[in-house]
Write a structure and sequence with these properties.
The complex is a heterotrimer. Chain A contains four helices and five strands; from the N terminus they run βαβαββααβ. The longest helix of chain A is centred in the N-terminal third of the chain and has 15 residues. The two termini of chain A are about 15 Å apart. In chain A, about 35% of the residues are buried. Chain B is mainly α. Chain B has a single domain, classed as Orthogonal Bundle (Cytochrome Bc1 Complex, Chain D, domain 2), CATH 1.10.760. In chain B, about 40% of the residues lie in helices and about 5% in strands. The longest helix of chain B is centred in the N-terminal third of the chain and has 11 residues. Chain B starts with a strand and ends in a 5-residue tail after the last helix. Chain C is an alpha+beta fold. Chain C has 15 helices and 18 strands. In chain C, α1 runs antiparallel to α3, α7 packs antiparallel against α10 and α12 runs antiparallel to α13. The longest helix of chain C is centred in the C-terminal third of the chain and has 20 residues. The chains are: A alpha+beta, B mainly alpha, C alpha+beta. Chains in contact: A-B, A-C, B-C. Chains A and B meet through β1, α1, β2, α2 and α3 of A and β1 and α4 of B. β1 of chain A pairs parallel with β1 of chain B, so a sheet runs across the interface.
């Protein structure tokens, strides 16, 4: 399992590291990012024929309440509501990846679930699987 | 199973620091027509030379999305502003970098407003 | 931040601040993010130390600002690199020849100064693109036709100064050859006008280009002797009609006669740009679609007898040429009839097919779906379909290319020899050859044939190293055969110029003497097409 932190140029991570690796061997990508970063990554991933399989948008509502918007196989959502951003996140997402049925046909609706990209949604974090 | 995990706390791609007025989708269409349509427009000769199916950008996106998303950029409803900016300023495959003396920062904001006008 | 060679940070900061006084803060670009916009998108050294990168860019709005920039650069010893629209892709784009140069971005100088529809010329600034000039003509309904290169975003000035070419009648296809009069700023900041423009009050700057005395315009092309700020171009009057017809000849050995007759028609101004093809080899041997041709070439270059047999087995003619006629209907139809008669008299079995016939100019809505914009002088970007992602390249679309166009004499034998050399050189590098015994030349420049190699470039160092090795070998091989590569990327300009070695490189030595006299500090485009200032010449053989 490789872990990468994006703090600057996503293009560097993609072109410098991920694209080459994924062209050689396809492995599922999973992560926790904001929506815009995810959109960029999703576009880039199409170049190695990988697409969004599953995503949970963690929306912070007025008053700090967290709401989850899930796209993908609903049975995978179990256990994701208390995602941390530390090791427990990795473990939880790895468990999701193990449970995804990659042989099933891709659900195009998941790919169309992207924005909105307005200022208020900058605080939205998305947990996702691209494969 | 091997998995690669990507963590990003924040998108750090440039924001519209210099935009003083609010972006104009109407002007964005004018800029788009001048700078983007020759490759990303919807109207193309029926048989492009060398077998392309549509204008170069539209044809390429058609291959990329396989009908799952529109190949014509103006029909998209999901484009992230940061992605548009990254591609315009960084180029992508055969599409080269576009400089600020060609499309200024405020014109790019306008193009972004135009392409995201129908976003959900 | 990158710095110009041998310039301290303090000196550079002073120069940038004086540039800003000349053009305004907004038009000096020195942040890493802004300077990155001046990278060559198709660089064959992308992200490697040898990639040519700028230290800053400055964008003047008029000739006075160009003069001020040059004076500042001269005072501080800052190398500067002018670009017009910066779209000279495959030949360096917006990036300088010498890393650390300050790019002088002329895109803001974008005025069409004059288009005369009675004397048939245009006078433009460097930032004007073919699209801009075309739109100017359309908006005013002027009765002239442009001659355009494939990508319409280029500059008529920039394109002609790198000896660019187009698609219509021969006098116009040679873009430098069809220029008339220019204005440029010297390294010392003086404004010079050539031809009749040197006489104050002259009304014939764009009508007579020699003026009196030596014609120095050629010194401004593929060189570094000044910054061109205005240039005139002769235009073709809008023809009444456009007609095409295709001639085919049956045998492999008929190519010689076909070539000679096409040259007769072109040099008599009876046809526009001819377009050769090979029906027998339909489809060629593209990277993705090996055909019987690949089998034919398995055991090396086939004999003429085998090639004749191959043609017979295909049941299609060996060669074709499309002729394109511009003019009044009576004239183009008569020209096509005369061409048919002449081919019929000279090649047994020649056959003929009528093609398109259009009244010009075509309305805008018809043009939008017309695939033949370039031959009609209409700028577009449709050529990029050749490199765009397609089903075969879906996972690794081309990221750029370095073009190598070898100029050959208009002889069948030279075309076959060049195709064979290209094919064998590609094979030597383990690259599937794109050339074969039925490869046909391109006739951009009417007096010579071009055999072209399109070498891919990538944002990947290992793959670029392979592309560079192939490209460099092709330059060598062309020179061994006496074929000149007419234009190249900064990465290969020294190598290419070294091939012009007649009398111990007398031509380059002459140019260097000029450089030393005209630009003693060597500030304008150091190294462009092998012309280095004295202080940087030591490494040259």
């Amino acid at each position: 399992m490789g872990v990468s932190e994006v703090s600057g140029d996503l293009g560097q991570l993609w072109y410098g590291e991920l694209r080459g690796q994924l062209r050689r061997t396809k492995v599922p990508l999973t992560g926790l990012t904001d929506r815009a970063t995810l959109f960029c990554l999703e576009e880039l991933a199409r170049d190695v024929d990988m697409k969004m399989r599953f995503r949970v948008d963690r929306v912070v509502e007025q008053g700090g309440r967290i709401r989850h918007e899930v796209a993908g196989q609903p049975r995978l959502v179990t256990g994701l509501h208390d995602l941390g951003t530390d090791e427990s996140f990795g473990n939880a997402m790895a468990s999701v990846v193990r449970r995804i049925d990659f042989s099933s046909s891709r659900d195009v609706r998941i790919q169309r679930r992207t924005g909105p990209f307005h200022n208020a949604s900058e605080r939205v974090l998305v947990a996702w699987v691209i494969a | 199973m091997r998995v690669t995990i990507v963590m990003a706390a924040l998108a750090v791609l440039a924001t519209a620091a210099f935009a003083q007025d609010s972006p104009s989708a109407d002007n964005g269409k004018v800029v788009f027509d001048k700078w983007c349509t020759p490759c990303h427009g919807a109207v193309a000769p029926p048989e492009m030379p060398f077998g392309g199916d549509g204008l170069p950008g539209t044809s390429a996106l058609g291959v990329k999305y396989r009908g799952e998303l529109p190949a014509v950029l103006e029909e998209r409803t999901d484009l992230a502003p940061e992605f548009i900016e990254t591609v315009v300023r960084g180029g992508l495959f055969g599409m080269p970098i576009t400089r600020k003396t060609e499309v200024s920062e405020s014109e790019l904001e306008d193009v972004i407003a135009y392409l995201t006008r129908n976003n959900n | 931040m990158a710095l110009p060679p041998n310039v301290s940070e303090e000196v550079f900061a002073s120069a940038l601040s004086e540039f800003a006084q000349a053009v305004g803060d907004e038009w000096v670009f020195s942040s890493d993010e802004d300077v990155a916009l001046y990278r060559d998108s198709y660089s064959i050294y992308w992200d490697e130390p040898e990639e040519r990168v700028a230290s800053a860019a400055v964008a003047p709005a008029n000739v006075e600002e160009v003069q001020q920039i040059v004076r500042v650069a001269n005072r501080y010893g800052i190398p500067i690199y002018p670009i017009s629209t910066g779209r000279n892709l495959t030949y360096g784009g917006a990036a300088p020849t010498l890393s650390g140069s300050v790019v002088v971005d002329l895109k803001r100088m974008n005025r069409v100064l004059e288009v005369d529809e009675d004397r048939h010329f245009a006078l433009v600034e460097p930032g004007v693109s073919y699209f801009d000039l075309y739109n100017y003509i359309q908006e005013r309904g002027l009765n002239v036709m442009l001659d355009v290169p494939d990508p319409g975003w280029g500059s008529p000035i920039g394109n002609s100064l790198d000896h660019g070419v187009g698609y219509t009648m021969s006098p116009y296809r040679d873009h430098f050859g069809s220029h008339c009069g220019m204005e440029f700023v010297t390294a010392e900041g003086e404004v010079v006008r050539t031809g009749n423009g040197a006489m104050p009050g002259s009304e014939s700057w764009q009508d007579y280009r020699y003026g009196v005395g030596p014609m120095i315009d050629g010194l401004l092309a593929q060189s570094n002797f000044g910054i061109v700020t205005k240039m005139g171009f002769w235009l073709m009057p809008m023809p009444e009609t456009f007609l095409t017809g295709t001639v085919t000849v049956p045998r492999y050995g008929d190519f010689d006669a076909l070539v000679k007759e096409v040259s007769y028609l072109e040099d008599s101004f009876l046809t526009g740009m001819p377009s050769f093809g090979s029906p027998a080899a339909r489809g060629g041997i593209g990277r993705q679609a090996p055909t019987q041709l690949a089998e034919l070439m398995q055991d090396g270059w086939p004999s003429v007898e085998r090639l004749e047999d191959f043609v017979s087995a295909q049941g299609r003619p060996a060669w074709s040429v499309e002729l394109r006629f511009y003019g009044p209907e009576e004239v183009v139809r008569a020209s096509w009839e005369a061409a048919k008669r002449r081919f019929g008299d000279r090649v047994a079995g020649a056959s003929f097919e009528d093609g398109d016939f259009w009244r010009l100019p075509l309305p805008a809505d018809e043009l939008a779906t017309n695939p033949r914009k370039a031959v009609l002088g209409v700028p577009a970007l449709e050529i990029f379909a050749t490199m765009a992602r397609n089903p075969q390249t879906n996972e690794a679309p081309l990221e750029g290319h370095a073009d190598l166009f070898a100029f050959l004499p208009r002889k069948a034998e030279a075309v076959h020899d060049a195709a064979r050399m290209m094919s064998e050189t590609y094979s030597e590098f383990g690259t599937p050859p794109a050339h074969h015994p039925f490869s046909t030349p391109i006739n951009f420049y009417s007096r010579a044939f071009i055999v072209a190699a399109i070498v891919p470039t990538w944002r990947d160092a290992a793959k670029n190293a392979q592309s560079r090795a192939l490209y460099s070998r092709l330059i060598d091989r062309c020179a061994e055969n006496g074929w000149i590569v007419y234009r190249t990327n900064p990465a290969f300009q020294d190598q290419l110029v070294s091939k012009l070695s007649f009398n111990n490189n007398a031509l380059l030595r002459f140019e260097e003497k000029l450089k030393d006299g005209i630009d003693p500090k060597g500030i304008i485009s150091p190294g462009r097409y092998g012309i280095w200032p004295a202080s940087m010449r030591s490494g040259r053989a």
